[in-house]
Structure formats: structure tokens, C-alpha cells
TrEMBL record:
GO terms for cellular component: cytoplasm; presynaptic active zone. The modification N6-(pyridoxal phosphate)lysine is found at K386. This is Glutamate decarboxylase 1-like. PANTHER family: GLUTAMATE DECARBOXYLASE 1, GLUTAMATE DECARBOXYLASE-RELATED. GO terms for molecular function: glutamate decarboxylase activity; pyridoxal phosphate binding. Pfam families: Pyridoxal_deC. Homodimer. GO terms for biological process: gamma-aminobutyric acid biosynthetic process. It comes from the Eukaryota. SUPFAM superfamilies: PLP-dependent transferases.
Length: 575
């Protein structure tokens, strides 16, 4: 057996590709080939594309000098996907290609954590569709060389948003955890499905361990609870309605909505819209979701809930389910879970707690009291991809009664869930889900938990709350800002208005409100165009547009908070 050096391998691959190109041209000239691949019949090189490829080659060579990881300079311009594994001679080229990909990712990660870089390089949709500096999202019939694929990888990151940047505050999920990232890479490499133990043994066991840990933290007994990881908090909330309905009316599974009476769900004014969407999807109907009033802090008022339940019963309908929120999306409010649990027990309603955002506080001995009463819930949604910083997506649906999830969703597909397998088929968890195929979302969380420990998550979450308190106090000292409500943050949400100098002389009233409503959108537009930072805004109830700041990014420090406030003033002082 002859082992060739890397350079010999490259030369051979390029030589083979050149010979193949020559043969194609000869076939075309002889009339034996109907059409050449697009790359062969091009009238000349695309100058923009060549510029991008040349730039990529230069960056590869620079990275070669600086990298402490073993890497290779390879000319990928004549190497294609078909040359990689499982091609018989593809092992070395695969290694080199993946080294280049890792180099692109490491470069991006370094830029993400560098506060001096932009959060985004914004372009409008039509610009991306038309192509930018040789970056095209159009698909071709013929394969592109791996050099172009590497350029595409780099450009995809270049024109996206750095959600791990210390000045990215736009969503509840932000940050870039390195161990979690490693977990996501490994998950993609394993590329398996979570429906049976036989094809995902380690991941299935890990999911059981993580769910048991979360159930223990909530306060449920180890043997009585159940759960599953789902594709996001909205689906976890849908599971809660699905299971609550099945618990009361198991005939729904076979006979449908015609077999049961009119059922009513209750949510707060500040609840997530996903419960209404679940009602629409499950055939209950959004008109059968009653919105319960909240106090000025955004908490459900228990007396209003009870009054609505009594009214529904008088109408001959069945009050079925209450969704209480532990950490509302906008205000970060916690509903009074103990009082809501008392009412649910009194009237025999299913109590769900949507702790998608605030569930992480259960890991903090300093702040977990804000979820007091969650242990009395029938089900809980908890998203580790929010406050715990796990890479998207990672959402757990937890239910206190063992076996209910399985009974509700099980269909016993014979090609997957054979009862006579050689192992304990209780670990074939796929029949608990409404999906068939299910992504492995648990490993990155398991790996992060191993790396941080529960105390590490606690430290992280406490720091987020400290940053929220710092922002709250800063806003109270600055004359150009007003708080939407003057109360210390319960979670990491801080809501405020920026008041431009031109508005400070106008008395409060409809005219001022109309102008103020336009301030946040205009500042946000300028912010995105410049790419310096990102924070969200929205109206809520009777309040005109205001900024909503949230902290869930481990990279954020107090100077980043100061920068945001100064940047808002810089961008909005002339409004």
C-alpha cells in the first residue's frame, strides 16, 4: 500500500479534476455531451465571486500563521463534496475541510466576544436576495467547489446577527456558551433521533436524568413525575393543554371535540400568546380562552380569576385549565402561584405554570422563592435556552402525573415500538411525543450542567439579576429616561422610555404619547443600521412603545449597560 503525502494528495486530486474537465470539454466539442456543468460553460470568472474567493484564501493563510491548532493549507478550488468521506480516499480531505470550517467558527466566536465589533451588519431582505459582494443564496444545479462552500459559511455568519455579543439584548435567549456549543456540535455529529433507546441509548438516559433533576428542583417526587423535551416553549405549552384535556376527557383521543362539552382555558393579560395558539390548533378555539386581568406590575389577580371561573360555570361551560406565568415575556412578572393553586384545587382545574423564562430562578437560592407554589402545579414549561444560556433550542415540558403523557399520545407504531425488544422498552420514549422524529436537545444541557454544576448556573443567574438591578438604579438617576413601572426587577426585565429633549417640555397627554410612541422604533432603526447594539421595544396594554431590556448573556458587563443608555441618547437626542 502506498501512502502519499498531503501535497501529493492535493496534486493528484487537482490533476484528476483537470483531466475530468478536459474530457468534458472534448465531449462537448464532439457533440457527445448535451450540456456542460455551469462552471464549465461560464464565459468568464465572476469578478465579485473571485474577490470573495481570493479574500478567503488570504484569510486562510493568515489563520495558518496564527493558529495553534494543527491545520493544513489546501487548495479547495478544485475539490468537491463528492471528494470527502465516504469517498474511499476522502479521509484526509475531510479532515482538512473540517479544520477550515472550525477556523471560520473560531474567528467568528472571537469577534462575537469582542465588544468593539458590530452586533450586526444589517442588510434589507431584497439585498440578500439579490446577492452581496458575491454572496448569493440562490441554488444551482451543478456542485460548487468546497472553496465556495467555505466562503458561503463565512458570509452566512458575516451577514447574520451575533447573538452572543455582549451588547445583544434583543431576545430572552442570548449569549454563546462554549461548552453548550461543543454539545451542539457533538449532537449534530451523532445525528440520531430521540424516538427509541435502540438508536439513541445515551441521549435517552441523559434525558431521563435531566428531567428527574428538574422535577426534583420543582419539588415533585422522583417516581411520580414525567416529561419530555420539545421544540420550544410554545409546543411545551401546547402539551400542557393537550394533556389537561385528555386527563378530564380521555375519549377526546378517539372521538374528538364533538364528544366533550365546551371547555374554557384561563390565562393572564400578560401571558404568552402560545396558549391561545394552542387552543386554535387543538380545536378548542381562541374564543374559549378567557384573559384574566393583571395588576399594574403584570401579575394575575386571583380574585379576578375566581370570578371568571364562577361566571363560566353559570354559563354551563367547563372551566378546565389555568396557565399561570412565572416570568412574563415583557414585564418579567411572577403570578401569585400559591393563590392560583388554591383556586385550581377548589374548582378542580388543571394548573399549568409557564416558567419558560423564569424557571431558571429555581436554581438560585436567593431568588427561587419567587416561584413558591410551583410544586403544586400539574405541569410546567421550563426553557433552559433562556435564563440558563443553553444554545437554542432546549425546552422541557414537565408533568406531575407519571404515565399521562404516554396515554395521551401513544399510538404504538409497529415499525418503531415493538414490545418484544431485548431491553426495557419503557425507554422508548418517542410515543410520549406528538412528533415522530425528535431532535436531541438534551445533550448540550447535560454537558453544561456537568461543566458548571447547579451552583455555576446559580452564580450566572444571580449575576443577571444584579445587572438588571444596576440598570434600574441607573435609569432612576438619568433625567432622559422614565420607567414603565417604578418597582425593582423581579426577573431581568427592565422596561423604560427614552424621553428626547424636545418632549421634556410637552405636558403628559395624548399629543405627547403620540410622539413618544414613535421614539423607540426610530431609535431601534438607527441602532440596527449602525449595528452597535440591539434591544427590543413594544407597546403593551395602554402604554405606548417602550424599550424592554433583558439580561441572559454571560458576556454582558456593567460597561455594556452604560454603553446602551449612552447609545440610545446619542441616536435619539434629535428626535
Amino acid at each position: 500500500m502506498v501512502i502519499r503525502s498531503g501535497k501529493e494528495m492535493d496534486f493528484q486530486m487537482v490533476n484528476n479534476r483537470t483531466n475530468a474537465d478536459t474530457n468534458l470539454k472534448m465531449q462537448h466539442e464532439n457533440g457527445s455531451c448535451d450540456v456542460l456543468p455551469d462552471k464549465q460553460i461560464s464565459t468568464g470568472p465572476d469578478p465579485l465571486r473571485q474577490k470573495r474567493l481570493s479574500s478567503f484564501q488570504g484569510e486562510s493563510e493568515e489563520r495558518e500563521k496564527d493558529s495553534t491548532i494543527e491545520s493544513f493549507v489546501t487548495n479547495f478550488s478544485n475539490i468537491f463534496e463528492s471528494d470527502l468521506l465516504p469517498n474511499q480516499n476522502g479521509e484526509e480531505l475531510t479532515e482538512r475541510f473540517l479544520h477550515e470550517v472550525v477556523g471560520i467558527l473560531l474567528s467568528y466566536i472571537k469577534k462575537t466576544y469582542d465588544g468593539k465589533t458590530k452586533v450586526l451588519d444589517f442588510h434589507h431582505p431584497h439585498q440578500l436576495l439579490e446577492g452581496l459582494e458575491g454572496f448569493s443564496v440562490e441554488l444551482s444545479d451543478q456542485p460548487e467547489p468546497l472553496e465556495q462552500i467555505l466562503v458561503d459559511c463565512r458570509d452566512t455568519l458575516k451577514y447574520g446577527v451575533k447573538t452572543g455579543h455582549p451588547r445583544y439584548f434583543n431576545q430572552l435567549s442570548s449569549g454563546l456558551d462554549i461548552v453548550g456549543l461543543a454539545g451542539e456540535w457533538l449532537t449534530a455529529t451523532a445525528n440520531t433521533n430521540m424516538f427509541t433507546y435502540e438508536i439513541a441509548p445515551v441521549f435517552i438516559v441523559m434525558e431521563e436524568i435531566i428531567l428527574r433533576k428538574m422535577q426534583e428542583i420543582i419539588g415533585w417526587g422522583e417516581s411520580e413525575a414525567d416529561g419530555i423535551f420539545s421544540p420550544g416553549g410554545s409546543i411545551s405549552n401546547l402539551y400542557s393543554v393537550l394533556v389537561a384535556r385528555y386527563k378530564r376527557y380521555p375519549e377526546i383521543k378517539t372521538k374528538g371535540m364533538a364528544a366533550i362539552p365546551d371547555i374554557i382555558l384561563f390565562v393572564s393579560e400578560h401571558s404568552h400568546y402560545s396558549v391561545k395558539k394552542a387552543a386554535a390548533v387543538l380545536g378548542i378555539g381562541m374564543d374559549n380562552v378567557i384573559v384574566v386581568k393583571c395588576d399594574e406590575r403584570g401579575k394575575m389577580i386571583p380574585s379576578e380569576l375566581e370570578e371568571n371561573i364562577i361566571q363560566v360555570k353559570k354559563q354551563g361551560k367547563v372551566p378546565l385549565y389555568v396557565s399561570a406565568t412565572a416570568g412574563t415575556t415583557v414585564y418579567g412578572a411572577f403570578d401569585p402561584l400559591v393563590h392560583i393553586a388554591d383556586i385550581c384545587e377548589k374548582y378542580n382545574l388543571w394548573m399549568h405554570v409557564d416558567a419558560a423564562w423564569g424557571g431558571g430562578l429555581l436554581l438560585s437560592r436567593r431568588h427561587s422563592h419567587k416561584l413558591s407554589g410551583i410544586e403544586r402545579a400539574n405541569s410546567v414549561t421550563w426553557n433552559p435556552h433562556k435564563l440558563m444560556g443553553v444554545p437554542l433550542q432546549c425546552s422541557a415540558f414537565l408533568v406531575r402525573e407519571k404515565g399521562l403523557l404516554q396515554a395521551c399520545n401513544q399510538l404504538c407504531a409497529g415499525y418503531l415500538f415493538q414490545p418484544d425488544k431485548q431491553y426495557d422498552t419503557a425507554y422508548d420514549t418517542g410515543d410520549k411525543a406528538i412528533q415522530c422524529g425528535r431532535h436531541v436537545d438534551v445533550f448540550k444541557l447535560w454537558l453544561m450542567w456537568r461543566a458548571k454544576g447547579t451552583r455555576g448556573f446559580e452564580t450566572l443567574i444571580n449575576r443577571f439579576l444584579e445587572l438588571a438591578e444596576y440598570l434600574y438604579k441607573e435609569l432612576k438617576t438619568r433625567k432622559n429616561y422614565e420607567l414603565v413601572f417604578d418597582a425593582e426587577p423581579e426577573l431581568t426585565n427592565v422596561c423604560f422610555w427614552y424621553i428626547p429633549p424636545s418632549l421634556r417640555k410637552i405636558p403628559k397627554g395624548p399629543e405627547r404619547e403620540k410622539i413618544l410612541h414613535q421614539v423607540a422604533p426610530k431609535i431601534k432603526a438607527r441602532m440596527i443600521e449602525e449595528g452597535t447594539t440591539m434591544v427590543s421595544y413594544q407597546p403593551h396594554g395602554n402604554h405606548v412603545n417602550f424599550f424592554r431590556m433583558v439580561f441572559s448573556n454571560p458576556a454582558t458587563k456593567k460597561p455594556d449597560v452604560d454603553f446602551l443608555l449612552e447609545e440610545i441618547e446619542r441616536l435619539g437626542k434629535d428626535l
